[in-house]
Specification:
Elements (H helix, E strand, L loop, with lengths): L1 H27 L4 E16 L5 E15 L21 H29 L1 E4 L3 E4 L4 H4 L7 E5 L2 E2 L3 H12 L4 E8 L2 E8 L11 H5 L1 E3 L8 E4 L4 H5 L6 E5 L2 E2 L3 H9 L6 E7 L2 E7 L2 E2 L5 E2 L2 E3 L11 E4 L6 H25 L10 H13 L2 H19 L7 H14 L5 H30 L2
Antiparallel strand pairs: 1-2, 3-18, 4-9, 5-6, 5-7, 7-8, 10-17, 11-12, 11-13, 13-14, 15-16
Helix pairs in contact: 1-2, 1-9, 1-10, 2-8, 2-10, 2-11, 8-10, 9-10
Membrane topology: Multi-pass membrane protein
EC number: 3.4.24.-
GO molecular function: metal ion binding; metalloendopeptidase activity
Length: about 450
């Protein structure tokens, strides 16, 4: 239920922002907006604004819409013809249609600006281990070194380092690292392995490093439904003691064991309500043959040691270009992912539908304000990018029609536009069905 609530909040907010972009530019262009509706269906509340727009809150809170004066939809009085959308010059129509996706992208910039001004806590990127004969070993990276910058850009946290490496790994570039060890700074050249978006999760292992992680007690937090952990009988609050007779005292030690034990049955001991119990569990292999059991560590009451804590933060002015850069980077990644799915280089299993988005919304909200607003920024970018695709029905499809109108000097025949709308609607429905199927497949495991 919580995930559903946050999904409705997220979707409604982002679609209203999108529609407000259309509304604001339409009003600036002199187009009369008949209705601005938050939600669909039965009216719950409405108010007539001074500019003639009816503002509505409707019963189904899944987005909204803007209805403009348009002769193609209903007769227009002679005195209001100059306010009709269809009577506007091409540049005005392009601006009005473009405004929705642009509003989503600008909201993402604002969201990232807020995040960077508040600051994102994280772990310092201190190297714990280097794999032999790996790119990291070739770059002479050493355990104990902290990677403080990539190509001169500060990387105060593990996540900021990951983001920088991911950006350059997509083309397999060589980057300049600034490292620090015992207050001595050194520069090193690292040639990143060329990775696709599907390989992002294994970026650090492909480079050949592990970063220092705090020793957390092996107490279970969230258990994923129908996971190996749930099927084995593990519960939230269980403390893991030993596996196959060997005692493991930290969460990290358990993670390493489970990841290396895909499809291997283990006999484990746990402490529950003061009683030691024995269970059997078999970690499931993921697409990289890494073992997973579907359980998270309980972080409640745990505090990361001060020597490992860091924060990515910028001043209000310095955060502006960083916010634009983050928005641009995620937009490029989104487009690369879509193109990869189209040509088959990225798995279409990555496509998520409403169930996946609802789960992400709920999870991010539980993690706090920063995680939730970051989720909003990413979904807002995705919404903006998707709406710019040249598919009839979407904003990008209308812009494509306007391009042909500009080339021809007159609009495309109405019959062509209608057929385009039908094709576009079919493609959107097909995409929705495919995404929903992926959601169901994830749920049933």
């Amino acid at each position: 239920m919580q995930s559903l609530i946050f999904f409705i909040i997220a979707l409604s907010l982002l679609v209203v922002i999108h529609e407000f972009g259309h509304y604001w530019v339409a009003r600036k262009c002199g187009v009369k907006v008949l209705r601005f509706s938050v939600g669909f269906g039965q009216k719950l509340w409405s108010k007539q604004l001074k500019n003639g727009t009816e503002f509505v809150i409707a019963a189904l809170p899944l987005g909204g819409y803007v209805k403009m004066l348009d002769e193609r939809e209903a007769p227009v009085a002679e005195a209001e013809l100059d306010q009709a959308f269809n009577r506007q010059p091409l540049r005005n129509r392009v601006a009005i249609v473009s405004a929705g996706p642009i509003a989503n992208l600008l909201f993402a910039v604002f969201a990232y600006w807020v995040i960077m001004v508040i600051g994102v806590p994280g772990l310092k990127p201190i190297i714990d281990d280097v794999t032999a004969d790996s790119p990291a070993a070739m770059a002479q990276l050493m355990p104990g070194e902290e990677i403080i910058a990539v190509n001169g850009k500060a990387t105060p946290t593990v996540n900021s380092l990951f983001q920088q490496w991911l950006k350059f790994a997509q083309s397999g570039e060589t980057v300049t690292l600034t490292t620090r060890s015992t207050d001595i700074e050194t520069t090193k050249q690292l040639t990143l392995p060329k990775l696709g978006l599907d390989d992002a999760g294994s970026l650090f292992s492909k480079i050949g490093i592990k970063t220092v992680q705090p020793d957390m007690p092996p107490i279970l937090g969230e258990i994923v439904a129908d996971s190996p952990a749930e099927r084995a009988g593990l519960q939230t609050g269980d403390e893991l003691i030993s596996a196959n007779g060997k005692q493991l005292s930290s969460w990290q030690a358990w993670v390493a064991l489970i990841q290396s034990s895909a499809d291997e049955e283990m006999s484990i001991e746990i402490l529950r309500d003061g009683q030691v119990q024995q269970l059997d569990i078999t970690p499931a292999a993921d697409e990289n043959n890494v073992g997973r059991i579907g359980a998270a560590v309980n972080t409640e009451g745990y505090e990361i040691p001060a020597e490992l804590r860091s924060e990515l933060r910028y001043g209000p002015l310095a955060a502006i270009p960083q916010a634009f850069s983050q928005t641009w980077q995620f937009s490029v990644t989104t487009l690369s992912g879509l193109w990869g799915m189209l040509v088959g280089t990225v798995s279409s299993d990555n496509l998520g539908g409403p169930i996946a988005i609802a789960q992400f919304a709920g999870d991010s909200a539980q993690q706090g304000f920063i995680a939730f607003i970051s989720f909003l920024a990413m979904i807002s970018i995705s919404l903006g990018i998707l709406n710019l695709l040249p598919v009839p029905v979407l904003d990008g499809g209308h812009l494509l029609m306007y391009f042909f109108e500009w080339v021809r000097g007159k609009p495309l025949p109405e019959s062509v536009q209608i057929q385009g709308q039908k094709i576009g609607l079919f493609l959107i429905l097909l995409l929705m069905v495919f995404a929903f199927t992926n959601d169901i497949a994830r749920l049933i495991g």
